[in-house]
Amino acid sequence: MANQKIVTAPAVAMLIVCMAGVAFGQSAALPPVFEVASIKPAPPQAPGRVSTRMSSDPARLNYTNVSISDVIGQAYRVQHHQIAGPAWLDTERFNIVAKIPAGVASDQIPQMFQALLADRFKLKLHKEKKELPVYALVAGKNGPKLQKAESSSGLDGGISRVKGHVSGKVSMARFAEYLSLRLGHAVLDQTELDGAYTVALDWVPDSTEEPGAAASSQPGTPDGGAVGATGPSLFTALQEQLGLKLVATKGPMEVLVIDRVEKVPTEN
């Protein structure tokens, strides 16, 4: 009996408090989830027309006619060409309405999308580095035709975009990101131009420039963009108006490889 260790009541109480604190800490560390989420198949649209709408406010998120690729891109902050999965990820369309818990910051929304995809579509994926077709954005033969800007507030606040036109003040790295979205392939900034520049570009879009459209296995030919009756292709406009050039090449890119995803989500 002399060698037995006696645990007193205060010690037991302290142990319970510590264990409760650990449990509370684990619960507090869990990422937020949508309070309620409705996912329904989107009605068919007119042939040859795909209209997607993504809007949100602090309390509610409303996505109309989005593909699962669109949502995966939002959830993991990747572009379309960085998602490797079944073709229906681009063709099946859904309407998603979700309630955002009070106090959730906007930068937590991607985690909430990840949880939603895992729960309702049973999404499982892993990341890989792959050598993919990309474009290198470089200075043209006669040098860039760009005016240095004092500052840049980024793509969302510093540049204006409509179909066939883009203008504003932006760094070349952010401009390359914009071109990636337009072309459906990665565009890497290799201009070696630092800081922000004033950009004004007009061109005639063709069918390959639809954001979110299924990308081909190879980039298009830089000189092969369709030239419309009223203006140049994007490739030609970049060279003539900005003194920049897109060169087809290959480069290492992080890719999300889809291991499992259900075509029909679980019930609301």
Can you describe what's shown?
This protein is α+β, with helices and mostly antiparallel strands and 268 residues long. It contains seven helices and twelve strands. The chain has helices spanning 9-28, 68-76, 88-91, 109-120, 154-158, 172-183, 234-242; strands spanning 36-41, 53-56, 60-67, 83-84, 93-99, 124-139, 147-149, 159-162, 165-171, 187-189, 196-202, 244-260. The strands form three sheets. It has a four-stranded antiparallel beta sheet. A four-stranded mixed beta sheet has the order 4-12-6-10. Strands 7-11-9-8 form a four-stranded antiparallel beta sheet. Helix 2 (68-76) crosses helix 4.
Sheet with the most strands, sense and barrel status: 4 strands, antiparallel
Q: What is the mean pLDDT?
A: 81
Shape, please? elongated
CA gyration radius, whole angstroms: 25 Å
Spatial sequence of strands, sheet with the most strands: 1-5-3-2
Portion of residues in beta strands equals 25-35%
Distance between the termini: 62 Å
Uncertain segments are 21-27, 152-157, 211-229
Total beta-strand segments: 12
Decide which structural class fits the backbone: alpha+beta
Indicate the percent of residues in helices: 25-40%
The H-and-E topology, N to C, reads as HEEEHEHEHEEHEEHEEHE
Number of helices: 7
